[in-house]
Amino acid sequence: GESVGLHLPTLSVQEGDNSIINCAYSNSASDYFIWYKQESGKGPQFIIDIRSNMDKRQGQRVTVLLNKTVKHLSLQIAATQPGDSAVYFCAENFVQFYFGTGTSLTVIP
Amino acid sequence: DVKVTQSSRYLVKRTGEKVFLECVQDMDHENMFWYRQDPGLGLRLIYFSYDVKMKEKGDIPEGYSVSREKKERFSLILESASTNQTSMYLCASSALTGAGEKLFFGSGTQLSVL
What we know:
heterodimer; A: mainly beta; Immunoglobulin-like; five-stranded antiparallel β-sheet; 11 strands; B: mainly beta; seven-stranded mixed β-sheet; three-stranded antiparallel β-sheet; 0% helix; globular
């Protein structure tokens, strides 16, 4: 089956610093990727997406980078805030979605 | 905003009980999904539906069934609940965007089977 993995299960950053969360995906045919944020007690919330014909996409304070050569996806959060504390996971789409296990981000005030 | 509503936030059931998890979406999406989420395993697809009265098995359908009688409602049924079905259950609906198929999730139902 598909395997989507995140490199680190936990990440702690100081408020105001930039955060980088990484994800490795397994299927080189995947053509669409999404990052989700899941706060405690809530369902996953869409953050940003990217198609495989792009290598970078920017949103508000977030940037997703896609490296198809090594099948790697990253989420960069600029000026991390306490409200960014959550579990972040990536998803790749090929026929269906396959999800990573998540990185728990803790922002230290 | 897209709203996917799951009827229960927490459920506690006994082994052998029949359990119904309900999900309603308000955006007229054709595609709906049921996932379970377990620590260290990520989200795994149980069943999905592309239209009313249509259903397709996902990766882990054993012990589950689904019902989609109306477009906005997708129900997950545990015919005879077992302790290994204790999990967080997430319903989702999807919409095609210019980039791809975007999933919208409900808040989840934490099911405990005793």
